[in-house]
């Protein structure tokens, strides 16, 4: 009896092992079967981003609702009826003037998450050129963006019929050097787009060590499993089955969300129409705007939006009002840390990404304008003169090799302290001035101006063409786009 019981106890671990193996095999077989079924039904997970990728049913996907998610969503939605005329790339140095200038000119608050067009620039280009209608300008800037992020954005979004006629890349030294950044692949935009597109031949530069590369490849492989597509379409199918309930729920949600945004933004339900001004100023493309009257808000709202680093953001939380009193925030300490070493290892890496970005855009047939963004003298002084010489020479060389145009506003004396939120970000006044200058630069460059009237993706550039460098006249009398405002 005891001997029989002992044999049974000895067999139990063996049986348990066989059962475990059988269960694992069954689970793997089921997982493979599900992936094959999804692959047949929906296609591969690394398909180009679509509008369905940003639907309510996709809320379970990784990185849902991040700043980059909202940017990508805006580009895809604004490309549903064809590629945009112009796409602007850059960091918060582009977002800040884009949101503030449009809020000011449209006379309404703008939600930073949903407002992905730059209306003023499109109207300014129409005013200066024979275009029949305003250009569609989509803002592809990302918070804290680096040159490597712009490379990933271009590789992922500018696919097939979504290629813009003109790509404007707005840069400053911080897009290349940031001593707070561990690696190119550590930014939120890079991680987001790595799920859809690898870094190609620059993968080793993005992931400095072998362990990071192995984990990146594993994460990419998992992200591209067909079952991931269920987050795009599976839940949407369930919602279609219960369409009536879903419709009622979505209508209720939309109403409450609209009320929330309106309340947060302090705007009317019907958006105000933009006022078209006569071209009565030598600098202002669309003419002067009335001075600010009893501004109920300050630029603190804008400063918080451009410096926000929350993982997930929601509608109604980051709203820029149309009329703001200027409050200057000195962020010099932050940039002293970022620029503590003007030549970190990441500098050469970011330059490689920038050169490859220009090369990719050239191959796609996109016209390109590179813009050196304006910053205050106190910020520029944080970097030695040798850096500035090497930096500007590297930009000129990269543009010349790919036929891109280059305009330098970095030390433009027309931008005064009252045009800034801090030492690098422009406010509404500075934004209107910047986009007026940018529109003039585009129109002054014959190749760029012609690209806006060409069919999408058909613009051709001579690889050996001399880069067009448009320098502002340093001796020109600085004049304001709007009535001069005091810095509070």
Compact summary:
The chain is 47% helix and 7% strand. The protein has helices at 2-42, 67-77, 92-106, 119-128, 147-157, 188-194, 203-206, 210-223, 230-241, 243-265, 300-307, 332-338, 345-364, 377-380, 385-402, 428-444, 446-451, and strands at residues 86-89, 110-111, 137-139, 166-171, 297-298, 319-320, 324-325, 367-372, 405-408, 469-470. The relative contact order is 0.15.
Q: What is the overall silhouette?
A: globular
The CATH homologous superfamily name of the domain at 51-224 and 327-470 equals SGNH hydrolase
Q: Calculate the terminal CA-CA distance, rounded to whole Å.
A: 94 Å
At CATH level 3, the topology of the domain at 51-224 and 327-470 is Rossmann fold
Major β-sheet strand ordering: 3-1-4-8-9-10
Query: Which class of the domain at 51-224 and 327-470 in CATH terms?
Result: Alpha Beta
CATH architectural arrangement of the domain at 51-224 and 327-470:
3-Layer(aba) Sandwich
Number of helices: 17
Your description of this structure?
The chain is α/β, with parallel strands linked by helices and 488 residues long. It has a domain at 51-224 and 327-470: SGNH hydrolase (Rossmann fold). The chain contains 17 helices and 10 strands. It has helices spanning 2-42, 67-77, 92-106, 119-128, 147-157, 188-194, 203-206, 210-223, 230-241, 243-265, 300-307, 332-338, 345-364, 377-380, 385-402, 428-444, 446-451, and strands at 86-89, 110-111, 137-139, 166-171, 297-298, 319-320, 324-325, 367-372, 405-408, 469-470. It has a 6-stranded parallel β-sheet with strand order 3-1-4-8-9-10, with helices on both faces. α3 (92-106) crosses α16, α4 (119-128) packs across α16 and α5 runs parallel beside α13 (345-364). Residues 232-285, 287-296 and 456-488 have low confidence and may be disordered.
């Amino acid at each position: 009896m005891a001997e029989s019981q002992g044999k049974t106890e000895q067999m139990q671990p063996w049986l348990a092992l066989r059962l475990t193996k059988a269960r694992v095999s069954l689970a793997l077989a089921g997982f493979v079967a599900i992936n094959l079924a999804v692959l047949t039904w929906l296609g591969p997970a690394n398909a180009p981003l679509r509008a369905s990728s940003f639907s309510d049913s996709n809320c379970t996907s990784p990185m849902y609702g991040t700043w980059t998610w909202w940017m990508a969503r805006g580009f895809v939605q604004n490309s549903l009826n064809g590629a945009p005329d112009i796409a602007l790339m850059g960091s918060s140095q582009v977002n800040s003037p884009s949101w503030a200038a449009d809020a000011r000119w449209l006379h309404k608050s703008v939600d930073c998450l949903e407002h992905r067009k730059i209306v003023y620039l499109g109207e300014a280009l129409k005013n200066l050129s024979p275009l029949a209608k305003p250009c569609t300008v989509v803002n592809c800037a990302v918070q804290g963006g680096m040159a490597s992020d712009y490379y990933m954005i271009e590789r992922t979004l500018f696919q097939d019929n979504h290629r813009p006629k003109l790509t404007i890349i707005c840069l400053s030294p911080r897009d290349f050097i940031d001593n707070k950044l561990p690696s190119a692949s550590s930014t939120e935009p890079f991680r987001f787009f790595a799920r859809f597109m690898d870094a190609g031949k620059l993968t080793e530069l993005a992931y400095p060590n072998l362990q990071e590369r192995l984990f990146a490849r594993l994460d990419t492989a998992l992200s591209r499993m067909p079952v991931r597509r269920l987050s795009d379409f599976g839940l949407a199918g369930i919602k279609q089955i219960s369409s009536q309930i879903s419709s009622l729920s979505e209508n209720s949600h939309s109403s409450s969300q609209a009320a929330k945004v309106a309340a947060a933004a302090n705007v009317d339900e019907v958006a105000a129409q933009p006022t078209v001004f006569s071209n009565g100023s030598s600098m202002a493309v669309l003419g002067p705007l009335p001075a600010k009257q009893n501004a109920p808000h300050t630029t603190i709202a804008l400063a918080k939006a451009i410096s926000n680093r929350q993982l997930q953001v929601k509608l109604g939380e980051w709203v820029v009002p149309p009329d703001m009193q200027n409050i200057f925030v000195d962020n010099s300490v932050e940039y002293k840390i970022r620029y503590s070493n003007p030549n970190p290892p990441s500098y050469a890496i970011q330059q490689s990404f920038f050169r490859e970005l220009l090369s990719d855009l050239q191959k796609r047939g996109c016209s390109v304008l590179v813009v050196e963004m304006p910053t205050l003298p106190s910020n520029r002084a944080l970097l030695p003169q040798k850096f500035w010489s090497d930096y500007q020479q590297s930009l000129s060389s990269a543009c010349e090799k790919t036929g891109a145009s280059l305009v330098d506003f970095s030390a433009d004396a027309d931008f005064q302290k009252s045009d800034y939120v801090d030492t690098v970000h422009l406010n509404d006044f500075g934004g209107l001035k910047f986009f007026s200058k940018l529109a003039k630069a585009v129109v002054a460059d014959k190749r760029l101006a012609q690209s806006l009237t060409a069919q999408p993706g058909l613009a051709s550039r001579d690889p050996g063409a001399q880069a067009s460098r448009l320098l502002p006249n340093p001796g020109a009398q600085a004049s304001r786009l709007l009535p001069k405002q005091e810095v509070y």
